Amino acid sequence: LIFFDDAFVVSDEDDTKMTINSYVKDLIVAVDKAASKIYHKKCQNIDPPIKVPTPYGGKLIWNLLGGNLLVVHLKNKEMIRHKKRWSQVMYMNYLLGHHLEFLQYSGLLRLSADNLCKNTFILALDGDIDFQPNAVQLLVDLMNRNKSLGAACGRIHPVGTGLMVYYQKFEYAIGHWLQKATEHMIGCVLCSPGCFSLFRAEALMRNNTITTYSTISKEAIQYVQFDQ
After folding, report:
1. Share of the chain above pLDDT 90, in %
2. Do 149 and 228 contact (CB within 8 A), yes or no?
3. Checking DSSP bridges between strand 69-75 and strand 2-4, what pairing results, if any?
4. Is there a contact between 70 and 31 (Cβ–Cβ < 8 Å)?
5. Least confident piece of the model among 1-15, 105-119, 214-228
6. Which of 9, 76, 87, 190 has the fewest CB atoms within 10 Å, i.e. is most exposed?
7. Where is the signal peptide, in residue numbers (predicted)?
């Protein structure tokens, strides 16, 4: 699955119509280019993606070899609430509410609903993060050792040299080793950074977590909690 935020722009030919932006077009070209290297060996050509309109914009579906699907969701900010939080709400509802149910009832996975939620994880990353596979494995191992753990984050640090980088390293270290450790001792870690965190599906689905996160901010504390 690939999700595009703000995937549409006003058409150059007609101001009343929207069209996909240059990033989506680049992806379409990249998919065709990558698939052609495989399909030429199979003496086949990749079919163009199926275009499906949706309440949030649209989606493109490629039928690949082996019955595999590549689905690209395109969000139109004119049709659904924009900004990062609402994109996260949409993605989480899709992955946790729709996709897990599909896997459960389709029989593709022989797991109970409870085990499926406990053993499904979502890895949140920033686009410029650089990490090694063992960093993810450490988070998964931590989750497996403590089944009540809902989220775990790796210790991140900037790369490079210079005074600003040194200051950022100090700031990040204080936040990871002191601030979060203090919050843990008090009883609740307030934030798991989105640049490198692993979330357990069960924790996100428990006690209306997504429903609470979907609350429209009306008070100052809600803006601080949800929209900063």
Report:
1. 9
2. no
3. parallel
4. yes
5. 105-119
6. 190
7. none
